[in-house]
Design brief:
The complex is a heterodimer of chains A (120) and B (134). Chain A has two helices and eight strands. Chain A is an alpha+beta fold. In chain A, strands 2-3-4-1-5-8-7-6 form an eight-stranded mixed β-sheet. Chain A is globular, with a radius of gyration of 15 Å. Chain B has two domains: 60 residues, lambda repressor-like DNA-binding domains (434 Repressor (Amino-terminal Domain), Orthogonal Bundle); 63 residues, Orthogonal Bundle (Arc Repressor Mutant, subunit A). In chain B, strand 1 and strand 2 form a beta hairpin. The chains are: A alpha+beta (120), B mainly alpha (134). At the A-B interface, strand 6 of A face helix 5, helix 6, helix 7 and strand 1 of B.
């Protein structure tokens, strides 16, 4: 399993502004038609990864997270912990069926691991 | 220190400087009535994020502390709702029921999940691990 980077996420104190900027800059499709109201940005191209924008915690400046698809989120968390990583957001099953967790590497950089629900 | 504790600490500090300083005077300073403040201090009434922002400004608390306290109060509102039988695991539904902006709901969910207070177990089931504070 190659464990590819499949998603990116911007966390921003001004999510509307950021999402609108990238949508206009790259002619991406912006949609919030999901149970979380998550701002999904998609290029419509199979090449590259799609992403989205989520509100940043209070007092935190904007930053980017990359999400790596893994076969087993629990196993990825366990391995990350054994390598000195930390759990920031515990494993969660999102309304669309995808499973994700956000971790810190040993230097404090955050990233996500996810198992995407198979879609028709 | 949470926001309620900060209110207690400020009232105690004022009473140390002036033993006759009353709850009524403190309520007046905060721009609320003394019965509301009394209930808040005794955890008989929940603090809204709006109250936290207003009281925080009057007390000159740091913007970061007030922002965190506001989020905490919003998170408690979401947690209270999540413990009801009619709860639906859907940010838009929560936003409609609480009257909060969608981004505030999602920030609160993020906060609750990070702290282990709420678990997204499946698309249909979000469970809470503690009751909401008053």
């Amino acid at each position: 399993m190659p464990n590819p980077v499949v998603r990116w996420q911007i966390l921003s104190p001004t999510p509307d502004k950021v999402a609108g900027f990238y949508q206009k800059l790259f002619d991406w499709k912006l949609s919030q038609a999901n149970a979380l109201g998550y701002r999904e940005l998609t290029s419509g191209d199979k090449a590259g990864a799609d992403g989205g924008v989520w509100p940043a915690p209070p007092g935190v400046n904007g930053f980017v997270q990359l999400f790596v698809e893994v076969p087993d989120v629990d196993a990825a968390i366990t391995k990350a912990l054994s390598l000195g990583g930390k759990v920031l957001v515990p494993k969660s099953v999102l309304p669309d069926g995808d499973t994700m967790a956000v971790l810190h590497d040993p230097t404090g950089i955050s990233f996500g691991v996810c198992a995407l629900k198979k879609r028709a | 220190m949470n926001f309620r504790e900060a209110l207690h600490a400020e009232l105690a500090a004022r009473r140390r400087r002036n033993a006759r300083y009353s709850l009524r005077a403190f309520a007046r300073f905060l721009g609320t009535d003394h019965s509301t403040l009394s209930q808040i201090l005794r955890s008989r009434r929940s603090l809204s994020a709006h109250m936290v922002a207003r009281f925080g400004r009057r007390l000159g608390l740091s913007a970061a502390f007030v922002a965190e306290a506001c989020q905490q109060q919003i998170a408690e509102s979401v947690l209270r709702l999540a413990r009801t039988k009619s709860f639906r695991p859907n940010s838009r539904w929560i936003a409609t029921r609480t009257g909060l902006p969608l981004d505030s709901v999602n920030s609160a969910l993020d906060h609750l999940i990070r702290h282990g207070d709420l678990v997204m177990e499946s698309p249909e089931r979000w469970t809470t691990t503690r009751p909401a504070y008053a």
